[in-house]
Amino acid sequence: NAGVTQTPKFRVLKTGQSMTLLCAQDMNHEYMYWYRQDPGMGLRLIHYSVGEGTTAKGEVPDGYNVSRLKKQNFLLGLESAAPSQTSVYFCASSYSWPGNNEQFFGPGTRLTVL
Amino acid sequence: GNSVTQMEGPVTLSEEAFLTINCTYTATGYPSLFWYVQYPGEGLQLLLKATKADDKGSNKGFEATYRKETTSFHLEKGSVQVSDSAVYFCALSPMNTGFQKLVFGTGTRLLVSP
Question: What's chain A's average pLDDT?
């Protein structure tokens, strides 16, 4: 099993450009999440999904959109990138409620917005 | 609100030294508590968890005890190895209705030298 994979691993954007980050999991998990990791701030939840076709906002959703058209994939979109979105982005998945269920993380995408 | 406070890093130790990384939390009720570890260049992995007061989570020689009276979940290991060098995140999942998202601390970097 590959677990949780993310593409791309690195990306540099100019302000105003758009891009999509792809997350895929092969564990048949219902729940998927997008986090951003910034120095001194830990991980913050951007958006999450509790099943195919569903999405919901997390702590810091502004400037991002997501889609979960297939159970195994969770896409994170930046329509008009800003320097404040420079960060490391992690996707994660879990079988059920995160309260008692382990979240499995991808290796991350390092995004720089100039 | 819900929050997690971890000790500032980096924590620098020699191989075979004793490790303690402090974690305290603020939450209502009885949250579930977790330690995640992030090795260089990788995503987070669950290290251990505890779901009720006085529970002890353990894995790979690491231990943490859920202390309700002191709202703490300190991570300990009796003898660290160079391979334990990583960033350690304490996290909680609050007990509330609806989506129980993970709240992460800011992370503590551990550096172990031979």
Answer: 93
- Predicted confidence at residue A55, as pLDDT, reads 96
φ and ψ of B80, to 5 deg: -80, 155
Q: Cβ of B60 under 8 Å from any chain A Cβ?
A: no
The answer to whether A3 and A68 are in contact (CB under 8 A) is no
Nearest to A103 among B41, B95, B102 (CB): B102
Instruction: Encode B14-25: b = buried (16+ Cβ within 10 Å), e = exposed.
Output: eeeeebebebbb
Chain A partners within 8 Å of B10 (Cβ): none
CB atoms within 10 A of CB B6: 23
Residue B96 pLDDT: 63
Q: What pLDDT, in 10s, does the model give residues A27-70? A: 999 999 999 999 888 899 999 999 999 999 999 999 999 999 99
Q: How many CB atoms lie within 10 A of CB A13?
A: 19
For residue A95, with 0-12 CB atoms within 10 Å meaning exposed, 13-18 middle and 19 or more buried, which class applies? middle
Q: Running DSSP on this structure, what letter comes out for residue B72?
A: B
